[in-house]
Amino acid sequence: MSKNTSPHKLGLNSTMPELSEGQLESLFRRLNLAHTRRIYQDVADRAEKENWSYRDFLALLLAEEVAHRKQTRLQRFTRKAHFPFFKTIDEFDFSLQTTLRLSLLGSYLGPDFVTEGRSLIFYGKAGRGKTHLAVAIGYRAIQNGFETLCTTAAKLVEELSNASKKGCLQESLLTYTHPHVLVVDEVGYLAYGPDAANVLFHVVNDRHLRKRPMIFTTNKPLSEWGKVLHDEDLAAAILDRILERGRFIHLDGPSWRTRHLNLLEPLPPAAERARISGIGVPEFSEPTIFRRTRIEIHCSTLQVHLTPPEIENFSHSRSRVISERQHRLEVFGQLTAKR
Predict the structure, then answer these.
(1) DSSP state of 104
(2) Bridge partner list, 217
């Protein structure tokens, strides 16, 4: 402020009011400057020691207050989101995916994802990271200043179905239509009631009309959503609205939960498997589908499938049984003749 500028021209009193600590506390509370109230004395002491200007002192107080409010808001909105766990996009291992890369999700990590009302469907087997990505994108929306709600498809359908039966569906819909971003997890994992498609359509249609983004995770291909929701036509209408401004992403690769077991690697050779298991290698190799000869022997209702070695053994055994039977008959005939 210029030295020639009069305090009266700025609407200020000519004398500087002397405020006690209690009066300052009261003013901070009245202006809802909770964080400033806690730190201002320490900042003032530092400003005196380092000979700060009034402008620098005020700038630091304001910056600290804004940063604290932003952090507080981030924590509050994260709790309200009801994420099943906390994950960020930086924690996702894209090396396990053959087609998905971070660059493909770039447009879903900025404010445009919300303002343009885009949507996503993550499809894949269990453990592929579908929920991880949905949570990470939902959290990024919170960081960008928007509200996110995460729920399971089963919970959404159950709550809205019960509300519909009680005649308060419209009021209950606000829970799922109000947040800027809605994450619906585990579509198709559990069985739903007969009105699942009906209540889900209400949510999707309302959000679609107001350009509010949605993120779905599912282990079912889109062609099976009609069976999952018990209505082929409504399922098609739901998907049509989701994907008009959305994208379908297929996640592959190994499961995050069991990747340490290498379940997708080919089995070791027979000799190696026998060594690991402690079982000796059989003297003769097992018959394969290409070497198996099928012979059917019907005896009452018994049906037996034999391989070539087994056929030969069976023939020898059968000849031996016939010879023994003929021998017994000859002996019996001789005994009968002597009588």
Answers:
(1) G
(2) 122
173 or 328, which is more confident: 173
Q: pTM of this prediction?
A: 0.71
| The pLDDT value given to residue 276 | 41
Residue 77's CB is within 10 A of a number of other CB atoms, namely 20
**Does residue 275 carry a pLDDT above 80?**
no
* Cβ neighbours of residue 9 closer than 8 Å, sequence gap 6 or more: none
Per-residue CA distances from 319 to 189, 312, 314, 316, 325 (Å):
59, 11, 9, 5, 10
Q: What are the two backbone dihedrals, phi and then psi, of residue 3, each rounded to the nearest 5 degrees?
A: -65, -25
Q: Write the DSSP symbol of residue 289.
A: T
CA dist., res. 125 & res. 165, Å (int): 34
Altogether, the residues listed in the chain come to a count of 339
CA distance 293 to 10: 106
Residue showing tokens 């994950």: 87
Residue 15 tokens, joined: 């004398």
Hey, which bits of the chain come out as E strands?
119-123, 148-152, 181-187, 214-218, 246-250, 296-299, 302-305
CA distance linking residue 160 with residue 227, whole number of Å = 19
- Rounded to an integer, the average pLDDT of 101-130 is 96
Q: Residue 306 pLDDT > 80, yes or no?
A: no
- Which residue type occupies 156? L
